[in-house]
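Hello again, I could really use a second opinion on something today. For a while now I've been wondering how a particular protein folds. Please have a think about how the structure follows from the sequence. Here's the protein in full, and shout if anything looks odd to you:

***
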Amino acid sequence: MKLRVEQTLKSELDSIRFSLIKYEADLTADLQTKKKILSIGLREKQETDKNRQEAQIKERAQLVLRLAEAEATMMAQVKLPELYEKHSKILDRYLRQCKSAHIGIQIVGLETTINDFSCNIYPSRSVEPTPEILDEIRTIELPVQSVYIHLQADQATAFERKQARKLILKDEEDDDRDKVGYDRELWMGLAATPFMDSGIDRERVHKKKESNKSSFRDMLSNNRWIVVLGDPGSGKTTFVRWLVSIYIQAISQNKPAVSSDDSPQDAEHNNVDSVAGPTRMPILIRVGEFVEACSKNPLLTLKDYIGNHTWLGNYMLDFPTRSTQKERDNDMKQLQTALHEYIKEGYALIVLDGLDEIPESETRTRIVRLVEEFAREHVQTPEHVSVFDDKFVGGELDIPSQTGGNQLIITSRIAGYKAKPLNGHFSHYTILPMEMDDIKKFIDHWFQTVHKKLIEALRLNISDEMMETVCQTQTQLLKTALEKPNNKGLRQMASNPCLMNFICLIAFRTRGAELPAERICL
């Protein structure tokens, strides 16, 4: 009621104001002056009406979103426990296997440091490792929470990506294209965004502004269809594995909403960002393994693959040792039924990792088509708007953190994606290189993890105080090396999480020695 009265008053005031402008125009006998006064007044009125209309639309959209959020929360509090209870036996095993698969990153080569570690780093008796100890050391992993990355929203439009692809590929389809038709399509695209800055100008501005970094929370809260781009080793896979682990925790604890702030790992490692929103069943798929499955079954769809999907060749169920093939097939069918029901009810987070990692162009086209078909059919807004519908249809009324529904995240290398981008209105984010503060946090956690795990594996009697002192000595040596003015090449490599892992291992093996300044030397 108050809002309606306020709007009526504003409308009345605008009418009075415009009447005064007309009165002012009537007072002058000069025709040109009269036209100027009325023209300025009319433009002001149109601008005011437009702003008020936009404000009203926004207010109504916010009201609808609040109602939708309340409804979605109530539904989730009822539906999620029902869904889990219905499939609890198979989902318990699925989540347990997911947690095991995505808990950390294996550190390769630590077994070669045993003698130096036990004799020189910590002066004690020489240790003769047993096969069991060696196996334990080979399985030491760095928890995925230790990777610190930042995201930046990509400013390119879908139209620009499509045109860029045509310029990159220069394939027969483009070469044979009727030039008049192509030019018409180009001009129509430009006309749709007449005030669009050039890509170069946007990137220049974007890189200068620190505030343009996007938080994980905002990305996941405001976007239903997401593409995360990054260079090789930039942390794309680690990021989505970390994300999946957060959702696994929420599902396992029967929470209607997910929050990484509740995770003890985040508090311990001072994670750079957090996640919040409605709980969804995580489904993480390696696109390369989906491609392999498609080569064996040409009629396979992405939805049919879900439930039968693998990670590094392992199914997402922990099968009993003596189970028969028939029992395993039955278990996989149960898992597929459960995950499909989560997708149908709109409580799934589907993550496709490595869209670019498809060798043949023909296969890439087919897989992209299958991904787009899945997105169109199974990842829609609650109002049944898909990523391929008009950009503005339902846009104001779709905030996934409030309205619920399925969510889709796709990762890809930058170069490979630009050669074959997805159609539709996907939101694109790029992983930025790690900054020095993040690199230092990575170093601290890497060395603390390795020292602690090796001490436990070798059964050494080392106090926490001594371990902390030795760790600080080693980490400071590496940090000092990275900050040397002549080590620019080393710093550039350290900004890549994957390479930073190798740099830490080399620094751990060769204390105080010169570190490589080029990638090839790793």
